């Protein structure tokens, strides 16, 4: 059985003590994501929104709403609105997936159900792009390999600062994900 290790400070994965490329590294190294547009503020805000959602969904922890930053609260409220209106039932939140065969790993935002259909969801506080579908494909392929469960419904949910949200559905696209992974590995992105 493979042992997955994640170092949150370095955002680095290992599989049986060997470095594994991350899904994000595959997308960036494969030329699907341009990180020049990312700002530190947006990155920190996105991380804070994800942390609030994780705390809210964790049965062992209560999220103290008084501690949620004013820049984060509208995005968190957008999540709550999505969850209620889409009748989203969370099964897993912030969970690791990995592929022994292709030596990559990642952390998916959520897996759950709506109207009885299981989906993997990625939450964004910025724009949704086609690369989100490729990111979700990487998670879905690794999940199927590791757990034997095929998930073909992939959803990007843009949480907006006015408390609204937008859902974008994506098709599973293994060809593009594996191409990005191959290019990233060729460029040495997992160093």
Account of the protein in words:
- This protein has helices at residues 23-29, 40-57, 73-85, 130-147, 174-186, and strands spanning 4-7, 12-15, 18-22, 89-99, 104-114, 117-124, 153-159, 165-170.
- Helices cover 36% and strands 29% of the residues.
- The model has no long low-confidence stretch (mean pLDDT 92).
- Helix 1 packs across helix 5 and helix 4 packs across helix 5 (174-186).
- A hairpin with a 4-residue loop joins strand 4 (89-99) and strand 5 (104-114).
- It is an alpha+beta fold.
- It has a single domain (4-186), classed as 3-Layer(aba) Sandwich (Trna Endonuclease, Chain: A, domain 1).
- Strands 1, 2, 3, 4, 5, 6, 7 and 8 form an eight-stranded mixed sheet that branches.
- The chain starts with a strand and ends in a 5-residue tail after the last helix.
